[in-house]
Amino acid sequence: MVVTIKHVAEAAGVSAKTVSRVINGEAHVSEAKREAVMRVVRELDYRPNAFARSLSSSRSYLLGLLIDDPASGYAADVQLGAINACRDKSYHLLVERVDRGEPDWQRALTASLERLRLDGALLPPPLCDDPEFLDLLDSVGLPYVRIAPGGEEARSGFVRMDDAAAAAEMTRHLIALGHKRIGFIAGKPTHGAAAKRLDGFTREMAAHGLVVDPALVRPGDFSVRSGMVAGEAILSAGKPPTAIFASNDDTALGVLMIAHRHHLDIPADLAIAGFDDAPTSRAAWPPITTIVQPNRAMAAEAVDILTDPHYRNDPRDPAWRRLLDYRLVVRGSTDQGLV
Q1: What mean pLDDT comes out for the span 131-150?
Q2: 172 or 30, which is more confident?
Q3: DSSP, res 118
Q4: How far is CA 138 from CA 141, 148, 279, 299, 330, in A?
């Protein structure tokens, strides 16, 4: 049997209009009636019809995931977390690619937003840190929640983890294993988290009285190829390191490939650490020690904020800023200390 709003109203002992108000997050409903309706909604597993809801209100019940690279493993994780959260709230998710390299990207994006009638947007990096992009969304009045922003935290609601603290913990792990000469491969400069990870690494090294050799710190862009290029440069240095900390797992995989080319035993000759807990970290041999970044949970939290009827009233309220936990996972690429 298909459960309708009338079934919910009858079971809760209220009118269909009251059920509609509760589901749409409207005011003028007592807390007792709201709780009664939501209890029945859960018991009957009622799923409102998004099309019918959009016809009876000014909302479309559509959220957009605006992203620069939908094909990345990170994007897939964020998308899955957002989709599941949207389903629970009877919203739908649309994925829209934004290519800032196109000469008329502003016009194309504005046209798309007008056509899609989104209720709000989720913004992962690097778009979440792009002032010109954020200004455009503000100009068209589209509410948004940023995922893992690197700056301007007072600008809107956001969900992130502490990248600097996580990088520091990974650095402590390597130091505890006896490593003193540690290389580091940075992430894409446009990602705010990249700078925080480098900062966490350098601060922790300094806290232990260890010198960071500039020759062992190389730029990267979160890709496997950048890990190979940077890894080759670091391992070819006059005095190579005993460990390399890469800003993400794809980069770490590139380092691992180069280390095998140099016939190095991992981790006896070289320890390798990554960040993100991407599928590549688990599929590599040996598996890569990493930081578990809660990408799906962050996307789900962002959906929770964006669908709150009170959010658009004051998106700068500190109540809409959420910090989630990370976790260090030790695997075969580092699980052996220096002799």
Answers
A1: 90
A2: 172
A3: -
A4: 5, 19, 35, 21, 42
